[in-house]
Amino acid sequence: MQVLNPNRKIIHIDMDAFYASVEQMDNPLLRGKPVAVGGSENRGVVAAASYEARKFGVRSALSGVLAKKYCPELIFVKPRFDRYKEISNIIRKIFHEYTDLVEPLSLDEAYLDVTKNKKGNPSASLLAQEIRLRILSETGLTASAGISVNKFVAKIASDYNKPNGQKTVSPDEVISFLEDLPIRKFYGVGKVTTEKMYQLGIFTGVDLKSKPLNFLEKNFGKSGTFYFNVVRGIHNSEVKADRITKSVAAEHTFEVNLSSEIFMMEKLESIAIGLEKRLKKYNVAGKTVTLKIKYSDFSQQTRSKTLPYFISDKGLILEIVEELLFQERMKDSVRLLGISLSNLNTEEKKFLVVQLKFAF
Q: What is the residue range of the signal peptide feature (predicted)?
């Protein structure tokens, strides 16, 4: 039987409104104002929102139209991913001064395992504080942190004192912390699952803990075992510095909806060129080509084909994409197209990815 391991020291670092904060830092005219990165008042979706915008209910994945409705003073800016990556690289270098066990989840967040660390500091809380000060000093941006015995609890804790704060959940606090936690705050429990749990009388961690394993497996399948363990503080996933890339993708949202497959092929050719560049950058190839289609009503469809050999050339990718595009008629005009390549040859192509370490 698995048990809670009180000896691990994991930190989850999460930058505060990263994309929006970068834009406000680089452009003083945006400071203190509601900012949305990505989208527009007529189209697209918000990629990130400043804290000033979040007060009005603006958040990532919200349509630009709704965002502008919620916050009439909202300022839309185009994302600059090269700039975000530049700053992310600075942050990751800081992480590696403390530990080699750094596992990035995205440009703006990562796990660090500091059970052992390069500073020889037994306190993960002090290390997290020091790292956050280093980030502020070297980038001008704030970060928040969660510190605990595993990745699951650390991830939840990092959201508690945002922005520019941190929360430590020590080994003897883990169980009570999880029992008091609203079920909607459990990492990995989405909106649909939350509603289902409410219907089953599960509103907090203590409610979840009261349910036997067979009950959870019956209602949530394999996820039931996960819920049964994490509410007891059991989550033994390691911070992994080697993460294998599982897919590479490129997509584009159009200002004007497309209604002709001929126009779509023109756009897909451009997308395939971008995808080929990414494949060359990562030095990988794949067997499964997937075409992603998002219609004007925001419904989404994917069509895939798996080959018996690896490909990475845009010409070969486009041949499969064209076949998938004309596989069936479009049901509506199209607002987004994307191409991804998966089933990669990553068994031989493992990428070094930074991981983080901390102490309590």
A: none
